[in-house]
Target: 60S ribosomal protein L13
Amino acid sequence: MAPIQACHPVDLEPVCPAVSTPGLEMHPFSSQTGLLVKVHPPKQPGNSQPAHVPCDIVLVIDISRSMSNSAEPPRTLTLDENDRLGVVTFSAQAKTLEDLKPMTSANKKKTNESIERMEPQTSTNLWDGICEGLGLFDKASPSSGRRVPALMVLTDGKPNHIPPAQGFVPKLRSYEPLPATIHTFGFGYDLESGLLKSIAEVGRGNYSFIPDAGMIGTAFVHAVANLQSTFANNAILQLTYPRKVTLRETIGQSVIRQDPVFLDMDRTQMTIDLGNLQYGQSRDIYLQYDKIVNVSPIVQAVLKYQHFTPITLQVTTQANLLNPSTTLRQSVIAYHVSRSAIIAFLSSLFFIRLDSGYEVLDRDMDSRPFATELQQLIATLPAKQGEFDSDPACRSLVEDLCGASPNGQISLALSDSKHFKRWGPHYLLSLAGAHARQICNSFKDPGPLMYSINSPLFIHCRDRINNAFDDLRPPKPTCTHKPHNSKTTISMKSYNQPSNTCFAGRSTVLLADNTAAASSSHKAGQNHDHGSNDSPPTQGGGRLIRIGRLRAGMRVQTPKGPRTVVAVLKTPVSRAALCMVGGGLLVTPHHPVSLDGGQSWTFPKDVSRRSVPYSGSVYSVLLQRDADVDAHAIMVDGVWGVSLGHGLTRAEQVVGGDVRVHRFLGDYDAVVGSLKKLHGSSNFRKDWQRRVRCHFDQPGKKVARRIARRAKAAAVAPRPVDKLRPIVRCPTVKYNRRTRLGRGFSLAELKAAGIPKLQAPTIGISVDHRRANLSEEGLAANVERLKAYKARLIVFPRKSNKPKSEDSSKEDQTAETTSSIRSAFGVEEAIAPGFSEIKKSDLPKAVEGGAYRALRNARSQARLVGVREKRIKDREAEEKAKK
Model:
């Protein structure tokens, strides 16, 4: 392993003092176009803190053949009893080698032995490994102290075994909040680095590219050192600002980037995910905004974080964008503006898909246009200006871009087609993540080496772990034969069919006794399966009943005696391939059965006489919970068949293997939880598939309806296909200004138009005897509508040789007709609105003193008229008495 380059602290900016809470600052630029938000964690822990921050680390290791040439992952390193470590391996399926446990001397030895016993296998089930690793955090006992949780995935990133149907990114997001950050490590050059980068971003972790065994040490040294110097986790920054101000992030697109949201009519909020914060390393966010006019641009910032507990702490501050009062040097501003520009350029090289995240560039793509864009970036980069040549931070960014060998890896990756095809995209994704998270991820690149150089804790942890790596003995070879380099993707369609673990509906089940069958079938099965094929009692006293008549509460016979049925799941299928075994049992190919009385179990496809296409319903049965695996089986058509939730979920539970082992179908709690999510009756009988329609025939139905309308119009011609309807107002205050066609004319409207109510339906007029006219305008408008219709109405005689007096004349019968009344009498003749405009000159003159005061005075005079008259009379009487 190459030695770590010595990096002494550089005076990038004033370092915050060692305090228990982080600092939060905002620095508006004097140009009034940019804002730098700085988060300052404490420089180092208090004196009472241990030599490093305790960690909970779970290693998820790919042991597929494609990983067999990589050096073994680091083992317990410098973890102590304050740390906990778990190990998970995955190939075709995930397997827990070691649960999350404290790294005492004994546990260290056991863990190292487990890692040394790993052997290469076939497939790469990456998703199963991630789920198994995250599950260790949930299963582990609660931590007695504060520990940094982290999941470290070591793989070549080429999953070929049961990936999530909706994609890794959406599926992983459905698990949020995650119990730990996820850090991915991609080995070799033939890897899906875009997928690993996306998983790391969703997991708020970091992606590291490891091209060969020589880089394994430095990648893990820095990854663990960053974890052991973590100050806080789950940190987010929320910025609230006026809606007229437009703040923009400057580091380009990412999988976890959130668009600003409008809190109300005046405020907007932007949320930026920061992930973990390290001691002594600031997090700097450069934002741009447009010129501000006629608004008070107060920006409020809130930093929310956790100290490895569910308790959320926060720090707040605010700044006025029009009052730049920054104390930062120009070199610091140039550095962060340039760093953001580099990240934005690197992220622009990759396309982000909704399901899989970053899409890696095609290796056959011409990289010369990217090299041209890089040269344009270098020419305009603030850090490249001559006045900042002596600044170490600015110089490190320039060396990353175009420095002399061995630096300048960005330029080398894009300008040389050989390097671009081999390692360019993988390396650029890793470097962009290190700059975005501001973490030091290796000894190689000058830019990331500038991060955490002011953190004594990080430097101490890094040097200590690096020395431990140098003292590791060479790993033992785990693959002594030539590996079979197969990339065949394994199909698991047989394990993802709705008809799995089911019996055909005509099969018969052996009940425990006659009483249970009689009572239960009478209570639960009266309205289903009326044609009964139930058999008389058997020699053992039990009764055979069709599985379609089986209900919850019945007791069936098992190899361990009677057990109660908890649920019956019914699933319709069409032409499903079922296997015929035993005396005629039809069962799905991968439903374990026993032909020797429960002594051994096998798949029906291995002992079937023939395969039968079956259409109908298939059934699965869940029995009462029992610790005995053999108590989860029922006798179906003379063959023992396993039931749901039998308890065998791992191959390690059975010596020699057992075909009944299944991670989901053997988990009783998981099966019950899934059944509860379905809709149906309490006995779990589900028939919802019959009532599900996808309406894929909508275009055809539309054409069929149009053809039917034309055929109807031709059949009833010359009669119109519809009837005359009145114009009515829509209900409710909100819509009563609108008009539409009503159900039918009222009797009052027909009477006013001179049309008998019994004759109206015979001449194409709809009648609604329940409707009443509430306005004279509506009544008059509909009467005119009826009269206009009657004037244009043509009545043909029933018998052409015997016309009646009310029939139309022969000249009218030959006139042009229409097939639709609505086209001739539509809603265009709507009722006039219930209000009209009034000119300002027609308005009454204003009341002197105000209308309100005039009304109050009039009301007071009306109420007190009697009192005032009495007072006048009393006053006159007093005056007469004085005389």
Notes: Residues 493-691 form a domain with the Endonuclease - Pi-scei; Chain A, domain 1 fold (CATH 2.170.16.10). Residues 1-19, 477-499, 515-533, 536-541 have pLDDT under 50 and may be disordered.
